[in-house]
Amino acid sequence: MFPIFQVAVPRARGRVNQLAFMANRLLSRGQWGTPILAALLLVSACGRNPGQHSPAGGSHAMPVKVLEARAVPVNDSSEYVATLKSRDSAVIMPQVEGQVTQIFVHSGNRVREGSALLEIDPLKQQATVKSLESSRAAQRAQLALAKQQFERAEGLSTAGVVSKQDLDQAKATMDAAQAQMDSLDAQVREQQVQLRYYKVVAPWTGIVGDIPVRVGDRVTTQTQLTTLDQPGSLEVYVSVPIERSPRLKMGLPVQVLDSNGKVLAGTRVSFISPQVDNTTQTVLVKARIANENEALRQSQFIRARIVWGTRQSPQVPILAVTRLAGQFFAFVAEPQNGGAFVARQRPLAIGQTVGNDYEVREGIRPGDKVIISGTQFLLDGAPVIPQS
């Protein structure tokens, strides 16, 4: 019985000391009439010997775990919502108007250069070409007759049978027939080229995108039929606020992040627009991404982080930081005369979140002993015993 009692008493005293800390903290906040405060005062008073004092009096120091703040390199960066665009992407639009009669591919198909994608009703154009070809055939006969007449007139003119005027007339008729023939040849070629536009083909090898049109739809030269993307590199389009533009320079590191903040790809700034967008007051910045595993997609919204530089800043665990009325605080074990330590509550200026730590820009210096346990029982100036 005696050994057990001897072990239990110190533990009970430690618990009473913690209750006294909580009571003092409520008193400091002005919460005089709460039932919790009354219970804490009663328990702490019953469990304290007449010769003992509260922790604020300095007779009993509370053991706390501490972590020494160390300066670590932290990236000075900014995150923006960006858009991915393919460097080898084409919007397929028809060069003629008409009704879609056939669609040869499906969204997602891989096609080769020159493969047929869609067909627009070519019947009217085919009739135009056939009519011109018939006119050309008739003109060819007229040209042959004009040549014969000229050759005959030329022979008769040599024999002195016909006048020079008749010869010139035959020559003019032949030249006019030849010019008409050349004109019809050009028209036929033009309409044959136009006929080829009624079958829409792939300009290069790639992947077919969404096909919003259907068989039977009437399309114009402004109608988007589909898109064609070449697998490969993408470009990140980032709109940087004008306030940050003086820090922009070619080659700045750019990181592409997923929704969880994981870095998917790293690249560098390859283009900075010389103009400011009047609507958004931002500067367009581009960076190329290889996208070898095709994890990213054309027109995808992503998070892009531009790294402006690197600085040395201390970090503290997130669990050691409290927030009151919008202000961040942390307790630090400060050394006193005689080797004792007291808890000091310091306001912090928090920077980035790095893993499970906060970057501290102001309030804590490298080498400070940051208290990471029992902070809910501490008061400013309370004696503590730091434990690594």
Give an overview of the whole structure.
The structure is a single chain. With 388 residues, this protein is of the alpha+beta class. The protein folds into three domains: 52 residues; 91 residues, Efflux pump adaptor protein, beta barrel domain (Elongation Factor Tu (Ef-tu), domain 3, Beta Barrel); 136 residues, RNA polymerase II/Efflux pump adaptor protein, barrel-sandwich hybrid domain (OB fold (Dihydrolipoamide Acetyltransferase, E2P), Beta Barrel). Helix content is 28%, strand content 37%. The chain is built from four helices and 21 strands. Strands 1, 2, 11, 12, 13, 14, 15, 16, 17, 18, 19, 20 and 21 form a 13-stranded mixed β-sheet that branches. The protein has a four-stranded antiparallel β-sheet with strand order 3-10-8-5, with no helix packed on it. Strand 18 and strand 19 form a beta hairpin. The radius of gyration is 43 Å and the shape is rod-shaped. It starts with a helix and ends with a strand.
